[in-house]
Amino acid sequence: MGAKIIDGREFAAEVRGKVKDHVTRLASEHSIVPGLAVVLVGQDPASQVYVRSKGKATVEAGMKSVEHKLAADTSERELLALIDQLNNDPSIHGILVQLPLPEQMNEDLVVNAIEPAKDVDGFHISNVGLLGTGRKSMVPCTPLGCLMMLRDHHGSLSGLDAVIIGRSNIVGRPMAQLLIGDSCTVTVAHSRTRDLPEVVRRADVVVAAVGRPAIVQADWIKPGATVIDVGINKVEAPERGEGKTRLAGDVDFEPASRVAGAITPVPGGVGPMTIACLLANTLTACCRSNDIPEPVGLTA
Ligand code: NAD
């Protein structure tokens, strides 16, 4: 029997719908509109696309969207001044500085200048520490999206063996903290892991966040396991014509979907959840800052 395909587009639409409902209620009951400020420095084409779609999704959810586009040669001091202004703006509940930043900027310094309560990316060192010690924090969007999909599929994750492949600060490490928080037995594998296939074979839950197309083979997957594929890789697609490409995940999808119990596709799996979780985080930040109970099911 083939795996259940976890439809990230459908699930993300559901999450966005819930966010929108809460936003409507916040407006009618408290006259509050959550606000998200996105800061883009420079002209990186991929970043421009991300920023545009984040702004559009924010407005669609009924929230206020503010975009600050700064020239590539902006000084770090100017950027820090803008962040300070946004930190002190009561109409802004979430601040996101699109990464990567130009060379003249120290990314750590910039990210850590954001007020932790407004840090909707969850990258501020205070939020990293809070998450790492099992406390309430702002949680990075991509692993939060993976967690939501896993909870939705399994109900309880308690006692499951989870293997995360990748130890980045954006995906692998926070994913590990979230799954520990949900009482999984967590293994974090990485580029130096010995016998990766054997490690993955133990897992009831596999989260692949490597950035190498089809690295995870079907015969690494325990029959019935849930596979969350975070990887986004551009691969050649000669079947689409000369020089054409397509997106592929870290998992060899077709054969793996004949072994797994459930699996996310690429595209259409984790990707759409990331923006949905950014909206959820903005709403959560807004509720926390106004001492309003935060929405159930939209946080870790
Ligand atoms: P990264 O490059 O920071 O980290 C990759 C990790 O993979 C590292 O920890 C490394 O140790 C590990 N790794 C590398 N080669 C390995 C190997 N041969 N065996 C085992 N582990 C190996 O990447 P990242 O930022 O964590 O992103 C990972 C992937 O997820 C990328 O494809 C990225 O595009 C994608 N991504 C997707 C979303 C989304 O919204 N869906 C968000 C963030 C990242």
CATH homologous superfamily grouping of the largest domain: NAD(P)-binding Rossmann-like Domain
- How do the helices and strands follow one another from N- to C-terminus? EHEHEHEHHHEHEHEEEEHEH
- Give the second-level CATH assignment, the architecture of the largest domain: 3-Layer(aba) Sandwich
Taking pLDDT < 50 over at least 5 consecutive residues as the criterion, the unreliable ranges are none
Q: First CA to last CA: what distance?
A: 32 Å
Shape: globular
Please provide the count of β strands. 11
Q: Give the names of the bound compounds.
A: nicotinamide-adenine-dinucleotide
The biggest beta sheet is recorded as: 6 strands, parallel
Determine the mean pLDDT: 97
Using only CA atoms, what is the Rg? 19 Å
Q: Structural class per helix/strand content?
A: alpha/beta
Proportion of helical residues: 25-40%
Report the sheet-strand fraction: 15-25%
* DSSP summary: helix tally: 10
Could you tell me the CATH topology label of the largest domain: Rossmann fold
What order do the strands of the largest sheet run in, or round the barrel if closed?
Answer: 1-11-8-7-5-6
CATH class of the largest domain: Alpha Beta
